[in-house]
Amino acid sequence: MVTTVASARVETLASSGIQSIPREYVRPQEELSSIVNVFEEEKKREGPQVPTIDIRDIASEDREVRAKAIEQLKAAAMDWGVMHLVNHGVSDDLIRRVKVAGEAFFQLPIEEKEKYANDQASGKIQGYGSKLANNASGQLEWEDYFFHLAYPEDKRDMSLWPTTPSDYIPATSEYAEELRALATKILSALSLALGLEEGRLEKEVGGLEELLLQMKINYYPKCPQPELALGVEAHTDVSALTFILHNMVPGLQLFYEGKWITAKCVPNSIIMHIGDTVEILSNGKFKSILHRGLVNKEKVRISWAVFCEPPKEKIILKPLPELISEAEPARFPPRTFAQHIQYKLFRKTQDVQAPVTN
Ligand SMILES: [Fe+2]
């Protein structure tokens, strides 16, 4: 059930001067012990670190150079499923413009942003929004967001894109186009890494016409009790790939070898996640890592996530037959993308209702 609290903007709450957060934002007891000060965590230099992958050479003409670059990407995709991409080919200036435009949108008064509000109850999911409680506990996350489809062009609804600031549309359009090309490059390299034909994964996720790029700008206001809340709760991305920019305020944590690891802020990098879709196609060779977002008291955090998703119904996702053998049977049943999302929601509801049976 949707309560009034569930539809409030976190930004409104945060700027109201409250010293303690509403109970809907307080995480369950068992989760609280793992929530830490993100700035202190980000400073730590010991322990496992999210790998940094230089992808300048993954499309090199020189076969040896290319093979070496693909090997590094493969190792990171198998071990972590998340990495900082450097030399990704998207210009620093374009990234700066995307960030300036998104920040300017969120600096608009709330009433202005509300003009772009989504309406999840009626299925209008694009636009300005906040998470609605989707289970009996009413649990909420400390963030507002702006969400819209960014690519391909013929599937976009430009009436939903912000007209202020004026560079939002040009910057976001160009960025989506660049990321689409980057996605092809990465999918090609991952295909080769699996011993498949270069275009295989690209084709399996819908190709140029059907793969959807969804832009989600996450806005995490300062939180008076960051030790009790999460900006985004633990999840894996359902996408094929996700590309993330942020405003250099730490927050992302990865669940690696049984521990929460805080991602460092790497200048000029794009964070890339392997999502469930590629994990399924690769029969689990590539990993879709569990991750979450912390919030803090001192700085607003903004991140720009672009989810590259297969079409909801048109494609049945299942481990590619070449990757299955008697020794390595299929680890995932065939499901459409929509069915996969439903399955995850169902499983989560079960977890919430019967935590002791897990
Ligand atoms: Fe995510």
From TrEMBL:
It comes from the Eukaryota. GO terms for molecular function: dioxygenase activity; L-ascorbic acid binding; metal ion binding. Its cofactor is L-ascorbate. Residues 211-310 form the Fe2OG dioxygenase domain. One of its GO terms (biological process) is pigment biosynthetic process. Keywords: Dioxygenase, Flavonoid biosynthesis, Iron, Metal-binding, Oxidoreductase, Vitamin C. Belongs to the iron/ascorbate-dependent oxidoreductase family. This is Fe2OG dioxygenase domain-containing protein. It comes from Nepenthes gracilis.
